[in-house]
Design goal:
Chain lengths: 252, 173
């Protein structure tokens, strides 16, 4: 056999296994997925090269993902650069250093979700607060639907956004009982929140500092109980001579 | 065939791209495999070349994609990936093969291992030119385009490379 023919036979017709999967994952044409534990059980986390793209209850997540995002799913490990941040982001309920891929949402929805991600663990804010923070105070309903369609629950902590009347409200990740479970886990007592809501308490002021807060704000929670007074609205608190907290920005 | 591919890429990149990997991946991988002599490195290079190709295509106008000569274009991307491309690996999701044992690439036949040895006796330029010419099956003009070397130099590289390989074979005999 000529040398040319021998060389020709060195080109083979099989592709190494995993190569097309690697390309699909690296281009984002398919998203990878892996499983993690959370306060509400096992969850499936999907990711593109740009970051975590969704979190869902593990059971049956594949069909929900492909239906919603139209992308293939491939079992994979998250990129080494940031995979170690995932368990912490789930536990703390904030992305921290973990990159998130919000490529499937609009700019407005992204601003809503990034604002939601700033709510501290163990605290809650009403939808109206998020609307004010994104400078669209009238868009409370649009904020509500953006939060309801949050692709990355737990890590973008939409369980910390509650109804404007203070009731805990709905939750997309497996139903309202999971929202209650998560808030309980974080130390924001759901019973206490429901009690405040039924008494129509929206903000609380510290008599000594004359600063008023959302009731779960760490500023008011560190005040002695005997100095705390309830108000039904920020404007009531303002009329009584109190100033809005710089940390939780309850509005006026 | 290639024109069809370029056309469908221009029409719907996301839909058509997997068939580009299917159609062109084998030649690209085995060519790179014979040029660099290392299975893992060739796999990484192939994967990275496709990922960069996809990104580039995403930024091209449809007309520009239709006009592309896909094979040399893809090879140019692959050849431009230096060794430092490996740092990108930690940014990519990593495929978890569920049946690693069963699906691993068949072992190389003994004579392919011997050929890797022989090819490694060539200079880098000779090895690249010989593999592209005789393993991948490209013409000298295309090789010149990909490697950025004059066509005459490419022909000389192929000629000298083959001569050296013949010597190796004779020496072995």
């Amino acid at each position: 056999m000529s040398i040319e023919r021998q060389l020709e036979s060195l080109g083979r017709d099989d592709l190494p296994s995993g190569l097309s999967e690697g390309v699909a994952l690296g281009t984002g044409l398919a998203h990878g997925y892996d499983f993690y534990e959370s306060a509400i059980g096992r969850v499936a986390v999907t990711f593109s090269p740009d970051g975590v793209s969704s979190v869902d209850i593990a059971d049956g997540f594949e069909s929900r993902f492909t239906e919603r995002y139209g992308r293939r799913l491939i079992r994979a490990e998250a990129p080494r650069d940031w995979s170690r941040y995932i368990p912490r982001a789930i536990e703390l309920g904030t992305p921290g250093e973990l990159p998130v891929d919000l490529g499937t949402v609009t700019d407005f929805q992204e601003r809503v979700l990034r604002t939601t991600a700033t709510i501290p663990k163990g605290e809650v804010r009403p939808y109206g607060w998020v609307a004010r923070e994104v400078h669209r105070p009238q868009a409370v309903r649009a904020v509500g639907s953006a939060v309801a369609r949050n692709p990355i629950p737990l890590i973008i902590p939409c369980h910390r956004v509650v109804r404007t009347d203070g009731h805990i409200g709905n939750y997309s990740l497996g139903g309202p009982h999971n929202k209650v479970e998560l808030l309980e886990h974080e130390g924001a007592s759901p019973d206490w929140l429901e009690d405040l809501a039924s008494r129509r308490v929206r903000v609380q002021a510290n008599m000594a500092t004359r600063v008023f807060c959302h009731p779960t704000c760490h500023v008011i929670r560190s005040a002695p109980a005997e100095l705390i007074v309830d108000f039904r609205s920020p404007s009531d608190a303002g009329a009584a001579g109190h100033h809005p907290c710089q940390e939780c920005r309850p509005g006026l | 065939m290639m024109d069809d591919l370029a056309n469908s890429l221009a029409t719907d990149l996301d839909r058509a791209f997997p068939s580009v990997v299917e159609e062109m991946g084998t030649r690209l991988f085995w060519g790179l495999r014979r040029i660099c002599g290392d299975h893992q490195e060739a796999e990484d290079l192939t994967q990275e070349a496709f990922i960069r190709a996809y990104r580039a295509l995403g930024s091209y106008e449809p007309e520009r994609i239709r006009a592309l000569n896909l094979q040399p274009w893809l090879w140019t991307i692959a050849m431009n990936l230096g060794r430092n491309h490996l740092r990108d690996r930690s940014r990519r999701p990593v495929y978890v093969d569920s049946e690693v044992e069963a699906t691993e690439t068949d072992p190389e036949p003994v004579d392919a291992v011997a050929w890797d040895q022989r090819l490694s006796s060539l200079s880098k330029h000779q090895r690249t030119a010989v593999v592209l010419r005789h393993v991948v099956g490209m013409g000298p003009a295309e090789i010149a385009e990909i490697t950025g070397r004059p066509e005459g130099t490419v022909k000389a590289d192929v000629h000298r490379g083959l001569a050296k390989l013949r010597n190796e074979l004779e020496r072995e005999a």
